[in-house]
């Protein structure tokens, strides 16, 4: 049965790489630059409200006060509306870790949920989840897109692990989640493999402020006896690293990473926040650290979207620093063999996102690359 589930998951991942049929509702849309304009406008709108702070006042005035978005984790005892409400997170880039967890919490509550995240609601905090819930009725609710992205990478990751295990059942597969934010994959996956947990170690890496908050919340939860067992790997290892400025080669080796074992690397929603030098260094180091057969799963945005974001009123979009219109060439030149570059749409998972048809085309890309 579990083998069958694994096969179905793999099939779903394969299906996910197929384009939508021409008559699919998700295709009925504007085309070319009109799509890009539309997409960009929408991203600006959603990002202006990334902290849910256009109620009761617009995001811009919120920021003008020098406040940061509130990360409302009452477990930590911070008061709403206070600077401490930042919980130590340094800026809106780090805050995306929290708002994306809220999207997963909201997705988990749907009757047709694409996944069940056991920790998302806790890691996001009640008030952030409530605020973002208020957006769900909006047909342009951004979380719908990110739930699909998460599902896509869930399937791609399990498929990659299964392939590694099929090639060598003794392989001590490693998973590395960089830019993991408040992602709880380590407790959420797998749903398909016979070997549970299927990986030997999962390494989670993000900025020090984000990992600090995450570990603090997790330890509170653990002390209260509410932390579920790890499901993705036997052991979870944390790296507090800024990929723009810190070297992490020694650190990851000290923490038990083995260059000789195959690795699935997942960078979900990370690379657009890195500088060009940070991206090159990360991609090359990851190639250097990857045994043959290792897989890199990554999403990114186009260079043109990054250029246009420079004049955006949104602090999130202005913080984008890297994009590529030709990721395949870039990654192939830095030690990888790109196997797929996809558009990912709601229609792949039975979700129609009516106002976004075609929006990802030429704007966001989802890539799988292998190390040979
Ligand atoms: C949009 S969130 C995605 C988080 C997570 N992957 C998810 O899907 O929920 C972007 C993440 O990238 C992290 N990030 C951005 N710049 C970074 C850097 N220079 N070094 C390490 N992490 C970074 C942020 O802290 C944040 O957690």
Based on CA inertia axes, which overall geometry fits?
globular
CATH class, anyone? Alpha Beta
Largest sheet: 7 strands, mixed
Helix content: 40-55%
Write structural notes for this entry.
This protein has 372 residues and is an alpha/beta fold. Helices cover 40% and strands 12% of the residues. The protein has a single domain, classed as Rossmann fold (3-Layer(aba) Sandwich), CATH 3.40.50. The chain has helices at 2-16, 32-48, 59-64, 92-108, 120-124, 126-133, 142-167, 185-188, 208-223, 249-254, 276-288, 303-309, 315-318, 327-332; strands at residues 174-178, 199-206, 233-240, 263-267, 295-301, 337-342, 364-370. A seven-stranded mixed β-sheet has the order 3-2-1-4-5-7-6. Helix 11 links the parallel strand 4 and strand 5. Helix 1 (2-16) packs across helix 7 (142-167), helix 4 (92-108) crosses helix 6 (126-133) and helix 4 crosses helix 7. The two termini are 32 Å apart. The structure holds S-adenosylmethionine.
Write the topology of this structure.
Elements: H1 2-16, H2 32-48, H3 59-64, H4 92-108, H5 120-124, H6 126-133, H7 142-167, E1 174-178, H8 185-188, E2 199-206, H9 208-223, E3 233-240, H10 249-254, E4 263-267, H11 276-288, E5 295-301, H12 303-309, H13 315-318, H14 327-332, E6 337-342, E7 364-370
Helix pairs in contact: 1-7, 4-6, 4-7
The chain binds S-adenosylmethionine.
GO molecular function: methyltransferase activity
Organism: Klebsormidium nitens
Keywords: Methyltransferase, Transferase
